[in-house]
Specification:
With 674 residues, this protein is an alpha+beta fold. Helices cover 28% and strands 32% of the residues. The strands form 9 sheets. The chain has a 7-stranded mixed beta sheet, sandwiched between helices. It has a 6-stranded antiparallel beta sheet with strand order 16-15-21-12-13-20, covered by helices on one side. Strands 27, 32, 33, 34 and 35 form a 5-stranded antiparallel beta sheet that branches. Helix 3 runs parallel beside helix 4 and helix 13 (514-525) crosses helix 14. The longest helix is centred in the last third of the chain and has 17 residues, at 554-570. It is elongated, with a radius of gyration of 30 Å.
């Protein structure tokens, strides 16, 4: 039996940009509560959270880690997430498992792009949020500027709950605003602001306050948890984690006011129907996998959060992805890379199970009575790509299996064989993401690959209508073949795909042969007339034809459909389509001119600009072919300070002046490989 109740659990996820102090905050929490006898540091690679060899080498968090400690009568489950943009998938998974998002902001640098992204994701998932301004003791720390950036970016709901005593070398600790023993004009003004924000979540208190009745300190404290969970208040704390200044005050705030698992808002789905359920240890089991680790020594380790019910060791439960029951022989509580076997997991627990191959990130674990699933995790599609080939012939057979293991761990990492280009391609969220994943492939599975830029997956379409007929006739010994088809071909709306229209009347072509014609047309569309790319967004109407009572057969109508489409399509003014991506580029404001000028040379179309502290955020629509190696260009322009992300938007025709040269180039490349 658990030694605590579900209401005592506090599940928090630490989010923020690289260098914002997440891992040191987690380390200080463990040390402050006696879990650790000695405080590790990220600079020395000695923290409990960053246990992976790759993290120790790079001195940065690259993967999600789970930690736990006890404080103030509460059980803290801490999810530490990486801060590089390329590892946004880990942040999404971590937020899914938590009830409270803690956004870390570096006091030297203010709000950075991953802190803003994590804030948005946590809000979309309905989590309450707190902000921690870290590294208050660092040279160049500026609390007032950092606080202003937080409030300008995240809103007026962000209110200081601790006040710093000095900063940089003079930083010596904090005062708690909600501690009634603290006095002063600043403290009183903040308490008034907190009171005004808190009463917004209680109609009776709001009515009293607006009527001029005083609201007691205890009344504000009593509704603080609700005010934070609903976003009326976002407490802001400040600290220096390595010196452990401000850490205890932050933990007190989480213990007293953080959302507990029984009061969190959760929804499940049965098909398309949304189902609300009240979390309770006595209710039916509902849990969700939010992270997976595939270790060569211990096998597959799946981390999951219990949203309702209880899961006992040696019991069975259903898995949503295959609908079958699975035995959960052993359940573990996790501390970094250490595991402790437990007898059961109750509502709110974050635990792990080993060697269940049917579990995947996003899967719901449930009992028979709870026949529903949690919402799928909203992972973005990976767009950065590298084509790969094995360095050693002996490794060719190992590539696929081991890359699929890495895909199990990170849903934003993909491996595919591109049928359009014939290449093996890995895709991720950016150059660093791909570099780390391929490094892991080498170090963990001893498989090395060579890489190069992948070919762009162009498409083709038709821009004019056409009409024609084709007769297929073969009589050269043995059974003959005969089929004649009459077809109209015209462009379809962009994105509508292929439509086949059967307008045959009078039985001039027998019903069983109609699908054969369509099959032939589809085969022809796999290689377009311009450069051999698939043809999309066309309507083909079969309106007449002929057949032979003996020689007509399925294969004959397939060939007639195929060659008929090829001949008609060649006269329908075919055009090349290219993929366009939505880009978000973050860079120092003084680089705006250079970034904009470079983007113009790449046929980029700006769609918006916003300010993020000292950084600018440019949104643009750009052809994928023009930004295939954008990471190195951006680093050069911004001296390594710029970051970017991109998602597929849609396909558009390649402009005429570019298309002609491109088709010649593609044909020349194809000829060189024949």
């Amino acid at each position: 039996m658990a030694k605590y109740q579900s209401s005592d659990i506090r599940n928090i996820v630490l989010c923020g940009h690289s260098g914002s102090g997440k891992t040191m905050l987690a380390e200080a929490m463990l040390h402050k509560t006696g879990v650790l006898q000695r405080l590790g540091t990220t600079s020395a690679g000695t923290t409990v959270s960053d246990f992976d060899p790759e993290e120790k080498e790079r001195l940065h968090s690259l993967f999600t880690s789970i930690l736990h400690c006890s404080y103030g009568g509460k059980e803290f489950n801490i999810i530490d997430t990486p801060g590089a943009m390329g590892f946004i998938g880990a942040t999404i998974g971590g937020i899914t498992g938590a009830d409270l998002a803690v956004i870390c902001v570096n006091a030297q640098r203010g709000v950075e792009v991953m802190s803003r992204r994590a804030w948005d994701i946590a809000g979309q998932m309905g989590l309450g949020r707190m902000v921690v301004i870290t590294r208050m003791d660092a040279e160049g720390a500026n609390y007032q500027e950092a606080l202003k950036a937080v409030q300008d970016t995240f809103g007026k709901e962000c209110i200081p709950f601790t006040i710093p005593h000095g900063e940089c070398a003079e930083f010596s600790g904090v005062s708690r605003v909600m501690d009634e023993s603290q006095t002063g004009d600043d403290v009183e003004a903040l308490r008034l602001q907190i009171t005004e924000s808190a009463v917004e979540c209680d109609e009776k208190l709001l009515e009293r306050y607006l009527g001029g009745d005083p609201i007691s300190h205890q009344e504000v404290v009593d509704i603080m948890q609700t005010a934070i969970a609903e976003g009326h208040i976002v407490p802001v704390f400040c600290m220096a984690a390595e010196k452990e200044f401000g850490v205890e005050e932050f933990m007190t705030g989480v213990a007293e006011w953080g959302t507990d698992p029984l009061h969190a808002h959760h929804h499940a789905y049965r098909g398309e129907e949304e189902i609300q359920f009240k979390p309770s240890p006595e209710s039916g089991l509902c849990a969700q996998v939010f992270s997976v680790l595939c270790d060569p020594h211990i096998g597959k380790l799946s981390y999951f959060r219990v949203f309702s019910g209880t899961l006992a060791a040696k019991s069975s439960a259903f898995i949503s992805s295959d609908g079958k029951p699975e035995k959960f022989a052993q359940i573990y509580r996790v501390q970094g890379d250490k595991r402790e076997e437990i007898t059961e997991a109750i509502t709110g627990d974050i635990v792990a199970v080993a060697k269940i191959e049917t579990l995947h990130v996003g899967d719901t674990i449930h009992c028979k009575e709870f026949d529903a699933h949690m919402k799928p995790l909203p992972f973005p599609a990976p767009m950065a790509g590298l084509a790969i080939t094995a360095k050693s012939r002996n490794d060719e057979q190992k590539i696929s299996a081991n890359l699929h293991r890495l895909m199990e761990e990170d849903p934003t990492f993909r491996f595919e064989r591109n049928d359009l280009t014939g290449e093996q391609v890995v895709r991720g969220m950016g150059p660093l993401h791909l570099e780390v994943m391929l490094s892991r492939l080498k170090n963990r599975y001893k498989v090395e690959v060579d890489t190069h830029a992948p070919k762009i997956p162009y498409l083709e379409t038709l821009t004019q209508a056409g009409d024609g007929k084709y007769r297929h006739k073969k009589q050269s010994g043995g059974a003959g073949q005969f089929a004649e088809v009459w077809m109209r071909v015209k462009p379809n709306e962009r994105g509508k795909g292929f439509e086949f229209v059967n307008s045959i009347v009078g039985g001039v072509i027998s019903g069983p042969f109609i699908p054969a014609v369509e099959k032939g047309v589809r085969a022809a569309m796999e290689k377009g007339p311009l450069a051999g790319f698939p043809v999309v967004d066309v309507i083909v109407e079969l309106y007449d034809g002929k057949e032979h009572p003996v020689d007509s057969k399925d294969i004959a109508f397939q060939l007639a459909g195929r060659h008929g489409f090829e001949e008609i399509a060649a006269g329908c003014k075919p055009a090349l389509l290219e993929p366009l991506v939505n880009m978000e580029i973050v860079f120092p404001a003084d680089c705006t001119g250079d970034i904009s000028a470079d983007l113009a040379t790449r046929r980029g179309r700006p769609t918006g600009m916003e300010q993020l502290g000292a950084m600018q955020v440019l949104h643009a629509l750009v052809p994928l072919a023009e930004v295939a190696s954008y990471g190195s260009v951006l680093r050069a322009i911004t001296q390594g300070e710029g970051t970017y992300s991109m998602t597929l938007s849609h396909y558009e025709p390649v402009p005429g002046n570019v298309s002609q040269k491109l088709i010649q180039q593609l044909k020349a490349e194809a000829a060189s490989h024949e």
